Amino acid sequence: MKFPIPYSLKQIAGIINTKYVGDDDFPVLGMNEIHVVEAGDIVFVDHPKYYDKALDSDATVVLINKEVACPEGKALLISDDPFRDFNTLTNFFRPFEKSASNIAPSAKIGKHTTIQPNAFIGNNVVIGEHCVIHSNVSIYDNCVIGDHVTIHAGAVLGGDAFYYKNRPTGYDKLLSGGRVVVGDHVDIGALCTIDKGVTGDTTIKKGSKLDNQVHVGHDTVIGEKCLIASQTGIAGCVVIEDEVILWGQVGVISGITIGKKAVIMAQSGVSKSLEGGKNYFGSPAEEAREKLKQLAYVKQIPFILDKLKE
């Protein structure tokens, strides 16, 4: 998430009431999670396991819960609770805005686009030309929809990320300030749910097609011309490259990459990154030919045991 104007390190520290290391006027341009940070961004870290990763990342401001040596060319925000303070910044720069109408006045809707009755279009939403948005679709604030997109009834775009910190008092939610961005010629089936990014974008690129009841987690990127069948669940921060096919009831763990033109057969569980151009099956998913061989061998076990008894 980029800020509307550059802020100084001193101004950011004032918003969250923290100490800082760096020049008062050190420029701060935005805030992002570790996997999408760029120069000028704030990244937060609250576990020693990830200190080095955050300090060595492209982020130039690190919100951290320990006083450490500040890397050259960067700045630090020293906080007793970086998770809480990251939420404070999200709430400051991207606060919730209530809407008083089904189609927000700030929404921009292109020519020849049809919005069916009872659809909800939130604040600052952009919808391109020649789209069809069916009844009971909810498109939350700041989503961007391309041209020639069809979204079927009951789909929800822009729900919050499923991202929580376990505290003694219960689960503390990480606020979502990102967007959903949908490219041209995308079809989204009925009752799909596509969560917005925590600070970045959940993206579905040109020409991809989602069947009914597909879930896409926060900050996931789905490439061009992908096919995703019904009841597939994709966790957050997944990269699905172009022309991938996920058949029905596939489950995909967070933070992995599925390579171009991979095909995942129905009811498979993807637990690690997969190379492109191959067919996969099973849970955990493996190359389909090898997995089917394994299943054939398993069927031989009773015969083998009978032979051993002879």
TrEMBL record:
UDP-3-O-[3-hydroxymyristoyl] glucosamine N-acyltransferase non-repeat region domain: residues covered: 25-91
EC number(s) per entry: 2.3.1.191
Keywords: Acyltransferase, Lipid A biosynthesis, Lipid biosynthesis, Lipid metabolism, Repeat, Transferase
TM region(s), chain numbering: none
InterPro entries named among the record's database cross-references: Hexapep, LpxD, Trimer_LpxA-like_sf, UDP_GlcNAc_AcTrfase_non-rep
GO MF: UDP-3-O-[(3R)-3-hydroxyacyl]-glucosamine N-acyltransferase activity
Pfam (any one): Hexapep
Protein name: UDP-3-O-(3-hydroxymyristoyl)glucosamine N-acyltransferase
